[in-house]
Each structure stands twice: as structure tokens, then as C-alpha cells.
């Protein structure tokens, strides 16, 4: 950093407000303000890094929380680097895990990586995105380079990680190769000369390792921006394909719209904050209108249409709304309905109907399905053996019986 701090102009302050919107932490904010000021003064864009390991073939809305932030930084004129962790995927990120994560094969990684950048480009501007693979610099390190890298970080520092400490105290094995993951992620920042690295709150330790390694290699340390982990449609656990509470960004417009309409009115504001491109002032105004008596469903429609339009088209968003409303034309969805917790998921539709109080017995539940009187999120159910995964659903029986059921 320059010995004499640069002035923080109104333009820099405006940029900082955009960067900090919805974030969990910005470390160190004063350092990043100086980086922004220097960038404004010199016209040199900052290098912004986001690394994602292709551990699954699809990206969901939870991933886009940090991708949205990358797009905001991109629109501010900075150079964003979308880093695909093809090398680190072979180690397996131990963050937040209670057991050693099985590493992926090179074939699995290659297959998953094919779709990652294409899907991320639905959020980022591909013409202004630098795409890199960390095997570029990790493979050439070799055994000698890995030993030299490992010498720059202590075991004591590594054991400050909460999940490592918990596993060690609990007698749960920690493999030596797991220590390599944060080192290699940190080395990515050295190789890319990153000014700022983004990640979820569960990545904070790894991101800070990057700062320390940059100092070791004589570079100015990157700043760290952590984003909250988005809750899934159940409003309980973080969005995850394995928990069935996710909304994939390549899902059909109807499916995406229906899932967004199924979230609770409370969770809707969290989604607005982390997923919407509307201004904070506009979102605050919408929330105030809801508190003063406006129907929250109207706000939810606005959110669902915005998200569908982003990943499909405005026309698709209009059609999804029309399809959604057509499903309930014979009996409108009530603003208030019973909220029911059930489970464990997956749970059969007949049992769901009984637990939600929509059928007095299994025989009645079966009869309702067979007669075509049961709908889940507006879709008529014909299979009485249907198993519902974890998630939140609007269950309808006939024209007037409704419940919002959360399975976990």
C-alpha cells in the first residue's frame, strides 16, 4: 500500500457501498478502499478472483450469490477471474466437513467443468471474464515445489481451522492431503496476483491463507469478501442439490418460477437481498409496502419474474407467470395457509397429505389422488406412490384446502 493514504472520494465510497451490499465481511475494508482509490486514480482495474471446484455438473441459485457480486465488480470496471479448480478438486475441499472428502477423478472433474463456465456466463459477462484453470500453475509445481510451498505455512496455523480442530479433538481422522487444499487455494492468489478474492462464509479460512502466502511471496496481500450462504427453498439448510432444496439456474422457467413462489414470505426478503439486482432503496420500499398491508405475493411474483428473466428471457418470465396463475384459476391460492413441518424426507405424498391435515386417513388421501384432486405447487399429482424430497411445497386438495409443507 502507498505510504500516504489516498483520499477516499465520493466515487470510491459509492463503489464501496455496491461491493458491501449483502456481504458478510470485507477484510480489510480500509485496505480495499485504498485499492479502489488507487484504481480510480490510475485507471488500472483490480484483479478479482473467484474459484469454484467443479464437484457437481450444475450451478444453482446459491452459487449465484457470489457470482452476482462478481458481476457487480465487473460492471464497476474491474477484471474478474473465474477460476475453475480442476487441480484442487482432486484434493477435495474439507471446509465444514466432519470426514475426509473423497477426491474426484480427473474424468469426473473434466465432465463437470464443461458446464460450469457456460452456466456462470448466464451471470457474468463472458466477453469481460478471464477464465483460468488452477492446474496451469499447480501441476508444474511438482514434488519439490509442493514441499517449498508447504514450508511457508505452519501446522499450528492450519489447526486454527475450526473444522480441523473439531475433528482432531473428536478423534476423527484428518488426512495430510487435506492440509494441502487451503495451501493450493492460497497459491492460486499468488499465481493470479489477486487484489480481492470472493467466497462463501465457509471459505474464510482458505481466503485468508491466500493473504498470508502473498505476503510470503512478496506481493501486496489480497482483500477478502465473504458472502452469506443462501438458504434453500426450505428456509432451513443452505441450498444444496443433495438436500433437494435447490433451484438450478438451467431449470425450466415454469419449475424455477414455481419454486420461487413456494418460498415463505419471510425468506423472500433474504432472496431479494442476495439475488435481486434491484437497489437496496427499492427493496426497502417494497418491504415497507408489505408491512403496511400490500400482498407479499405480488412482491414474490416480481422476484420470480426477475430471476426467470435473467436465466431465460422476459417472455419466458411472462409465460411462467401465466402458467402459474392458470393452474390456480379454479381456486386462488390463499394469502394465509397452515405452515406444516413434516419428514423425514423423502416422504410419500399420501403421508404428506395426512401429516398436513389435508386427509383424515390413508384411504382418503389415496382417493383424493386417484380422483385428480391433489396438486403440488400447482401440478396435478396422479402417482399415489410419489415421494417428495426435502423442500417446501404448496399442497392443494380440491379447490379450498391448502397447506405449505416443509419436508426436511
UniProtKB/TrEMBL annotation:
Residues 347-408 form the RNA-binding S4 domain. Gene3D superfamilies: HUPs (3.40.50.620), RNA-binding S4 domain (3.10.290.10), Tyrosyl-Transfer RNA Synthetase (1.10.240.10). Its EC number is 6.1.1.1. Keywords: Aminoacyl-tRNA synthetase, ATP-binding, Cytoplasm, Ligase, Nucleotide-binding, Protein biosynthesis, RNA-binding. Signal peptide: none annotated. A motif ('KMSKS' region) lies at residues 238-242. One of its GO terms (biological process) is tyrosyl-tRNA aminoacylation. It is found in: Cytoplasm. It is an enzyme of class 6 (ligase). SMART domains: S4. It catalyses: tRNA(Tyr) + L-tyrosine + ATP = L-tyrosyl-tRNA(Tyr) + AMP + diphosphate + H(+). It comes from the Bacteria. A motif ('HIGH' region) lies at residues 54-63. Belongs to the class-I aminoacyl-tRNA synthetase family. TyrS type 2 subfamily. HAMAP family: Tyr_tRNA_synth_type2. Catalyzes the attachment of tyrosine to tRNA(Tyr) in a two-step reaction: tyrosine is first activated by ATP to form Tyr-AMP and then transferred to the acceptor end of tRNA(Tyr). This is Tyrosine--tRNA ligase. It comes from Pusillimonas noertemannii.
